[in-house]
Write a structure and sequence with these properties.
cell membrane; 10 strands; EC 2.7.13.3; SPOB_a; 5-stranded mixed beta sheet; alpha+beta; 5-stranded antiparallel beta sheet; about 15% strand; 11 helices
C-alpha cells in the first residue's frame, strides 16, 4: 500500500510555521544575549565608577600607605558599599593584602585574584569569580595624597542582580515574541488557504499532470488535423493518379504529358532536350526521373549532369524507394548549388550497378555542410538553411534507404573545388 502523501498546502504551512518559530526563537535568544552583554557592561562601568570614587579618597590612600594604624579604611569602604549596594568594596596594599573587606575575618589576607596589573597603573573591569562568587568587577589603582600608587581598590556587584534584571527585561519581551509568533502562524495559515483556493485544492503533481495532459489534448489535436489533411491529400493524389492512368491506358499520351505539366508546373519533356546517354542509363524510371530533374535544374540556373562512370544496364525493381532517395539527394544538391558561391553552378550524379545493388553519388558546387551540422545533418529538422519546413529531405532519404537494407552517408562535407558529397547504397533494387 502506497504511503499517504501529506497535502502540499499542509507541508507549506508546517514549513512556514517552523521557519517563523525558528526566526522568533533566534531573535529572542539574540535579544537576550545583547541585553546580557549590555547589562554586564553597565554593571562593570558602575563598579569602575565606585572604585574610582574610593581610589581618589586620599584619607584611604594615606592610611594604606602608613599601614592603617587607626583602622579607617574598613569603615570608609563599608560605608561606600552600603551606600552603593555593591557586593563588596575591597582595598589592598601593593602586595595584595586586604585592608577592607565585607567579611572582617579576611582582613590581612592576600586577595584571591590577580592584582599586579592594577598596581602597575591599569584599570580593569570584568565578570569574574572570587571569594564572594560571580560578580561584575571594577579595579583601579589606589592613590595617596602625592598621587603615588599604594594599592588597589576592587568593587564588585553581584551577578545575580544582573541576571535578575535580565529576566525582568525578557519577561517584558516574551509576550511580544509570542505575539509575533502567533501573527506569523496566522499569516502562514492565511497564505496556505489562499494558495489552496487559487489552485482549486489541487496538488503540485496534479497540476503538473494537467499541464502535461493539456500539452498532450494540443499535440493530439495537431495530429488529428494533420491526419485529416493527409487523408484529403491522399484522396486528391489518388484521383490525379487515376486520371493519369486512364489517359495512358487510352493512349492519350499528349494529354497525359500536359496533365503532368499542369500538376508539376514543369515544362513538358521533348526529344533532344536531355543529354543522358541511353546505353549508360537503360532503366526507364531513373532515365525519365533524371530527365525531369534536368529541366528543373535548368530553371534554377544549375546544370545537372551524369558522371562519365554512370552505368546501369538493368532495370530498377523498387522505383518508388529508389526515386525517393535519388530525388531528395538531387533536390538538396540543386538547392545548395543554386545558393552557393561557386559558378557555374552544377550537380553531378553518379549511378553505378554492382550486381543487384545500386550505388548513388551526388556532388554539388555549393558551400558544403558546416562543421556544427556534420554529425546531425540526417536528423529531422536539421538543415543548413533557416525556415519552417526545413530538415526533412535527408531524414526521409535515410529512412527510405534503410528500409531497403541500405544507407546514406555524407562522405565529404565540401571544400576546395566542390561542395558536399552524399553517397547512398541501395541493395537488391536492380533486376
Amino acid at each position: 500500500m502506497a504511503p499517504v502523501r501529506m497535502p502540499f498546502t499542509r507541508q507549506m504551512l508546517l514549513l512556514q510555521i517552523g521557519l517563523v518559530t525558528l526566526m522568533v526563537a533566534v531573535g529572542f535568544v539574540l535579544t537576550a544575549w545583547i541585553l546580557s552583554d549590555s547589562l554586564i557592561e553597565q554593571y562593570q562601568r558602575r563598579a569602575l565608577a565606585v572604585a574610582e570614587s574610593v581610589s581618589t579618597d586620599t584619607v584611604v590612600g594615606d592610611a594604606v600607605a602608613n599601614g592603617d594604624p587607626e583602622h579607617v579604611v574598613q569603615a570608609r569602604a563599608e560605608a561606600v558599599r552600603t551606600a552603593t549596594g555593591a557586593a563588596f568594596v575591597v582595598v589592598t596594599n601593593r602586595d595584595g593584602i586586604r585592608y577592607a573587606h565585607p567579611m572582617p575575618e579576611r582582613l590581612g589576607q592576600r586577595v584571591s585574584t590577580d592584582h599586579t596589573e592594577v598596581v602597575a597603573g591599569k584599570k580593569v573591569s570584568n565578570l569574574q569569580h572570587g571569594t564572594l562568587g560571580l560578580s561584575a568587577r571594577g579595579k583601579v589603582p589606589l592613590l595617596d595624597h602625592t598621587g603615588a600608587i599604594v594599592g588597589e581598590v576592587s568593587v564588585g556587584f553581584n551577578a545575580d542582580g544582573i541576571y535578575d534584571r535580565l529576566w525582568s527585561l525578557l519577561r517584558v519581551a516574551a509576550p511580544l515574541a509570542v505575539a509575533a509568533l502567533l501573527l506569523g502562524v496566522a499569516g502562514s495559515a492565511l497564505l496556505a488557504r489562499l494558495l489552496k483556493q487559487r489552485t482549486f485544492g489541487l496538488e503540485p503533481h496534479e497540476l503538473a499532470e494537467l499541464v502535461q495532459q493539456r500539452e498532450a489534448r494540443r499535440e493530439l489535436d495537431s495530429i488529428h488535423r494533420l491526419d485529416g489533411a493527409l487523408r484529403a491529400q491522399r484522396h486528391e493524389f489518388a484521383n490525379r493518379l487515376h486520371a493519369l492512368s486512364g489517359l495512358l491506358q487510352l493512349q492519350h499520351h499528349q494529354e497525359a504529358m500536359e496533365y503532368v505539366q499542369a500538376l508539376s508546373g514543369t515544362p513538358v519533356l521533348t526529344p533532344g532536350t536531355l543529354s543522358i546517354p541511353e546505353e549508360a542509363l537503360r532503366d526507364p524510371y531513373l532515365h525519365a526521373f533524371l530527365s525531369a530533374k534536368t529541366l528543373a535544374a535548368q530553371e534554377k540556373g544549375v546544370s545537372l549532369e551524369l558522371a562519365e562512370t554512370t552505368w546501369i544496364t538493368t532495370k530498377v525493381i523498387a522505383p518508388v524507394a529508389v526515386t525517393t532517395v535519388v530525388g531528395n539527394l538531387v533536390d538538396n544538391a540543386l538547392e545548395a548549388a543554386k545558393l552557393g558561391g561557386r559558378r557555374p553552378a552544377r550537380v553531378e550524379v553518379d549511378l553505378i550497378a554492382d550486381g543487384a545493388t545500386l550505388h548513388v553519388s551526388v556532388t554539388d558546387t555549393g558551400d558544403g555542410v558546416p562543421e556544427r551540422l556534420r554529425e546531425s545533418i540526417f536528423l529531422e529538422g536539421v538543415s543548413t538553411r533557416d525556415g519552417d519546413g526545413r530538415g526533412l529531405g535527408l531524414a526521409l532519404t535515410r529512412q527510405a534507404a534503410r528500409s531497403l537494407g541500405g544507407d546514406v552517408r555524407l562522405t565529404d562535407p565540401g571544400g576546395g573545388d566542390h561542395g558536399a558529397v552524399f553517397v547512398a547504397r541501395l541493395p537488391e533494387v536492380l533486376a
